[in-house]
Design goal:
Layout lengths: L16 E5 L2 E4 L4 E4 L2 H4 L8 H11 L12 H12 L5 E5 L2 H18 L7 E5 L8 H5 L4 H4 L9 E4 L4 H6 L5 E6 L2 E2 L5 E2 L2 H14 L2 E5 L23 E4 L10 E5 L20 H14 L4 H19 L7 E7 L2 E6 L5 H12 L1 E2 L1 E3 L3 E4 L7 H17 L7
Parallel strand pairs: 3-15, 5-6, 5-7, 7-10, 10-11
Antiparallel strand pairs: 1-2, 2-3, 4-12, 8-9, 11-12, 13-14, 14-17, 16-17
Helix pairs in contact: 2-9, 3-9, 10-12, 11-12
């Protein structure tokens, strides 16, 4: 047998973490890494946060799982808290971001079915989007690298260039259910939507009776300095998919919706064996305990501004390599020039400078630190990035 016990679908690197402490990961040989990847925007409170770990341990010792055949005091309390702090009236709890997006797609389609318009099933999505790895969510993107070998994919999606309002509006027809869009594309290269684009989609939904479905799996949950990124655009969505930071590292996701948008989601239309179990809800509540403290989001915004300023100050010193910074809050992208490759530079920072980052599309390095970083972590990250850039040999110079 030559295949590995873990199915070899990940090109794993040589970093093998065994412990986490705050904003650091420790490998099995004791080496320390400054973690500005956060498990791809998941570990919003860093590693081993005492309030989160205690909540999980206490709940695990009390009740871990019962299924959704029974009443859920834990799920009801967590969902109510999400409702109280968001646009939503109701929540479906999932185990992952892909499941949250799947639920969002089903909710949008079911809405039109309940209104007597089952032909309105098509969602307009956007080029270079990432919505997950299920058959449904790869059908919602036009990225060949996600779709290759998995055809036939599901019908019911149309694709427009991201941030191109006219192109999106031109795709509306009698079969359109709404738009599915990331307010900030993450895997696609940390690309924030413009105000005019998101507002235009909202206006089109209102005009044509469509639903605005936001994928905030990566850009949501405090990462931009508000609980959800759409709050900074001043728009109200109909449905939002959330995950990643929602459990602080525990597998958890949520599909949030208004009462009107969720009108078709009645008993029997959707389900999950594990979704919203007591243990997951304990983690979710603990994350909200920290995030909803006075000043938390202000601190995220301030840290984001300091990190961006440090990056922008650094760029002229390495202008052979770095082009610009983009993003919001602590969801930042460092755009590289064509002489470099983001994945190679991320590996260089990791292997030679102890700094963990994430590659993204459009030759961008994603910088996704824990939301609890302090000034010392920002200074250390800038120093490591600068040291890495100083000795990195761009691809064209090899």
């Amino acid at each position: 047998m030559t295949i590995t016990a873990l199915m070899p679908v990940y090109p794993r690197c040589d970093v093998r973490p065994v412990r986490g402490e705050g904003c650091y990961l420790i490998g099995e040989r004791g080496e320390r890494y400054l973690d500005f990847a956060s498990g791809i925007a998941v570990n919003c409170l860093g590693h081993a946060h005492p309030h989160l770990t205690k909540a999980i341990a206490d709940q695990a010792a009390t009740l871990m799982h019962v299924s959704n055949l029974y009443g859920s005091p834990q799920g009801e309390a967590f969902a109510q808290r999400l409702v109280d702090n968001s646009f939503a009236d109701t929540v479906f709890l999932t185990n992952s971001g892909a499941e949250a997006v799947e639920c969002a797609i089903k909710t949008a389609r079911r809405y039109h079915h309940a209104n007597g318009n089952p032909q309105r099933h098509k969602l307009i999505t956007f080029n270079n989007a990432f919505h997950g790895r299920t058959i449904g969510t790869i059908s919602a993107t036009n990225q060949d690298k996600l779709r290759d070998g998995f055809e036939p994919l599901l019908p019911g999606f149309a694709y427009a260039p991201f941030d191109d309002l006219d192109a999106a509006l031109a795709l509306i027809d009698d079969n359109t259910a709404g738009f599915l869009v990331e307010p900030i594309q993450g895997e696609g290269g940390i690309r924030p939507a413009s105000q005019a684009f998101l507002q235009g989609l909202r206006d089109a939904c209102d005009k044509h009776g469509l639903l605005l479905v936001l994928d905030e799996v990566q850009c949501g949950y405090g990462r931009t300095g508000t609980l959800f990124a759409h709050e900074q655009y001043g728009i109200k969505p109909d449905i939002v998919a959330a995950a990643k930071g929602i459990g602080g590292g525990f597998p958890l996701g949520a599909c949030l919706a208004t009462e009107e948008a969720a009108k078709g989601m009645v008993a029997g239309t959707h389900g999950s064996t594990y979704g919203g179990g007591p243990l997951a809800c304990a983690a979710g509540q603990a994350v909200l305990d920290v995030m909803l403290e006075d000043g938390f989001f202000d601190s995220v915004k301030a840290s984001g501004e300091r990190l961006r300023a440090g990056l922008e100050q650094m760029i002229p010193n390495h202008d052979h390599l770095f082009d610009s910074v983009r993003g919001m809050g602590l969801m930042l992208g460092l755009k590289l020039k064509d002489t470099a490759v983001s994945r190679d530079f991320v590996a260089h920072c990791r292997d030679h400078h102890g700094l963990l980052l994430v590659a993204a599309g459009d030759n961008v390095v994603r910088i996704l630190p824990p939301l609890v970083i302090e000034e010392s972590h920002i200074a250390e990250a800038i120093e490591k990035l600068s040291d890495a850039a100083r000795v990195y040999v761009p691809v064209s110079d090899d």
